[in-house]
Amino acid sequence: MSLRSVTLLVLLLAAAVTLAKETGPKTSEVTTPAPDVAQEKATEAARDKAQPVQLSGTVVDQSGAVIAGASVEVRSANGVVLTTVPSDTNGSFVISGLTAGNYRLVISDPGFETKEVPVTLGTTQASAPLRITLAVSAVSTTIHVQGREDSLIGIANSATQGTVGFTEIEERPILRAGEILETIPGVIITQHSGGGKANQYFLRGFNLDHGTDFAIFLDGMPLNQPSHAHGEGYADMNTVIPEFIERVDYEKGPYYTDVGNYGSAGSAHLVFFKTLPQNFIQAEGGMYGYWRGVFGASQKLGSGTLLYGGEVYHDDGPWVHPDNYYKFNGILTYSHGGDTDGFSVTARAYHGKWNSSDQIAANAVPLIGLYGTLNPTDGGNSQRYSLQGEWHRQDTNSQTQIMAYGFYYDLDLFSDFTYFLTDPVRGDQFEQKDRRWVTGLDAHHTIFSQWFGRKVENTFGLQVRNDWITNGLYQTENRERVEKTDSDTGNILPATTQADRLTDTQVGLYFENKIQWAEKFRSVVGLRGDLQYFGVTSLVTSANSGTASKFLPSPKLSLVFGPWSKTEFYAQGGFSFHSNDGRGTTQTVEPVSGENPYPNTPATPIPALIPTKGAEVGVRTLAIPHLQSTLSLWYLHSASELQQSGDTGGTVASRQPSDRYGIEWANYYTPLEHLAFDFDLADSRALFTTIDGDDAAPGSPGGRYVPEAVGLVISTGITLPDLKGFSGTLRLRYFGPRYLTSDGIYRSDPTALLNGAVSYQISKSWRVSAQFFNLLNRQDHDIDYAYESRITPAAAPAFTEVFHPVEPFQVRIVLQRTF
């Protein structure tokens, strides 16, 4: 028996009970209707309550012309798609079989704005016909959807563009804030050090380190840090409070003109609430010294809305030497207006302090255990304080948005990855310090028009960012800067390896044209130009001071075909880039370090910008009811893997180009209102174009594998949202094996984690949840490398696998009150 049949049966029984009460004897009544009259009224009442009602209407454009083939979705009050029908040749639609209640109609058609209409159906057989007018929106992709269950047909420009909504984020067990990004199909988030350090990102055949080719934005403000002391593109998600994210919009590949630096593999746009669904206060506690408190509220202030909230957090982790990670986050937003005309101002603040149990060599496990450390003084602290303002306006002819931002950031990080390899007496700990002031502007103007009867959208954009940076690399012991002695040569390594003041300026201009050529075909053509300028003052070696600049054009093209039978096809191609560390672009002398213990060693400056290019074909379909499915094949070429290494002060291989290619398959299935499945698979290959001997095992001539590149990724889960007050989810995350050296001699094992969560709505205001991590208590690895290290002063150097373990099984309890 179907759910609709059960619902109908329940309504019939309810109606019968109600009628029995209404038609039974009443002591207060003097007269009783004749039997035939009573029976007729009872039959009529039962028919009114039991029979499904009908909903009908007509879809037209602003001129009054009917729109045939428009998609009319019926959703429940909480957003689950119940049925979808097209408008006929007269623009009309009829939906039968609905029971009384509240619904949402979502009407869409390529070339028009999507419109949402709330509908309340009573117990009559038919409501008054609706007349729904869709405004012309050229081929705009600015329509906001709520999550993966919503259709992006007619909106998205590729199969790998999508949105993850607040409810999907809320239902997932999240061990650390960065795992919000694992809601994006194919993305893996790991950690190889203390909790306060930026996560390690993996996507599309990249070990992205901390963000080299994956761009992250907070309400349009970039999170990635160029010319960073630890690594290029450093993006720290610890500054994000998950409960304040309304949705995550994502896209993959170098095909989007509004995404410049770091966007070759993909980008994520975190959109924050301007008004919270509910005010809340939340307390959490769990194993390994974990506790967290967070609150959020929004209220009317004058003619606008004030949103404010904060987070305090502590976690020791399972480590022998506890992380003792404290962080504090705050957010304050004032907004005014709506989607078509308004502005907002947002201030954010973050402070974190932690210890680190860095990655350990495999041969050190018998000495210190799986969760031990070879240097208990590793750790760091970081702060970020930002202010951004945004203004937007839209009418039938144009749309304009301007966003300006500024922030202060600093990091002091102490790490030790080779232990006693360089100096067996004082060890190999080093300090990376980064302090910067940043300002930026992102503005674009879109004109809606028609060319020869074809709907057209032209966008002009400007993006400017300037970082004033002071950073450095220092030799340390127990967090004190000291000189060291190289064990191989006996040369002295100065306490200051590298120290610089630099200006990193990025200017991007772009133009994008979208045309709806025919009912089943549209195109997006873009051209972007980026100028990179570095001004570097070396505080150690004047020969490394100087300026460098580079201009790079990046054309883009997307072709969209369909839809046919609720299926759309895509083909894209485009160019992009990532910037290099500014210090490497003017460096003519290698810093003296354990990697290079010789003074006055000549160095070759590295390029300011590394170009990339890629292509993709894909399909998106809703042909199977309640199933959103996408499939794509992609290719990406990078001109070089060469980067400046914040850990050594020198450059890392390799100069030769690389090729990446893969397949992605994403599915989101909601067969019932209280049941959802998702299954996402991505498989990638990353190869150098020629043999690379620098990243090989000792004695090996090398190979073509790009070390640590992500391969197979599977993310899948089942979710039961809000079933009689209960909600639950069970999730599997599989991170496949990776080659750790270019010759393939060293290869990691796969990582498979099973996580879950269950919650219960105790009352209207109170909810309790439990989150379970690593349910199978597997001793897999969060991340793996292979390189040479020495685990004790007396030990011999060894080239071996180096890893950071996943955290063991643990439980966290969450108590939330809304008001």
Q: Can you offer a commentary on this structure?
A:
The protein has 5 helices and 46 strands. The strands form 8 sheets. It has a 22-stranded antiparallel barrel. The model is unreliable at 1-50 and 138-143 (pLDDT under 50). A hairpin with a 2-residue loop joins β29 (496-518) and β30. The chain is mainly β and 819 residues long. Helices cover 6% and strands 53% of the residues.
Question: What order do the helices and strands come in, and which of them pair?
Answer:
Blueprint: H1 3-23, H2 35-50, E1 53-61, E2 71-76, E3 81-86, E4 92-98, E5 101-108, E6 115-121, E7 130-134, E8 162-165, H3 166-171, E9 188-190, E10 200-203, E11 206-207, E12 214-218, E13 221-222, E14 245-252, E15 266-272, E16 280-286, E17 291-301, E18 304-315, E19 325-337, E20 341-355, E21 360-361, H4 365-368, E22 379-394, E23 398-415, E24 430-451, E25 454-477, E26 480-481, E27 484-485, E28 492-493, E29 496-518, E30 521-538, E31 546-564, E32 567-579, H5 582-585, E33 609-621, E34 627-638, E35 643-644, E36 651-652, E37 658-672, E38 675-692, E39 703-705, E40 713-723, E41 726-735, E42 751-761, E43 766-773, E44 781-789, E45 798-805, E46 810-818
Helix pairs in contact: 1-2
Low-confidence stretches: 1-50, 138-143
Which range does the strand content fall in?
over 45%
| Largest sheet data | 22 strands, antiparallel, barrel
- Backbone shape: globular
Q: Give the class from helix and strand content and strand pairing.
A: mainly beta
Report mean pLDDT, rounded to a whole number: 90
Give the count of helical stretches.
Answer: 5
- Terminal residue distance: 39 Å
Helix content estimate: under 10%
How many whole angstroms does the radius of gyration measure? 29 Å
Number of DSSP-assigned strands: 46
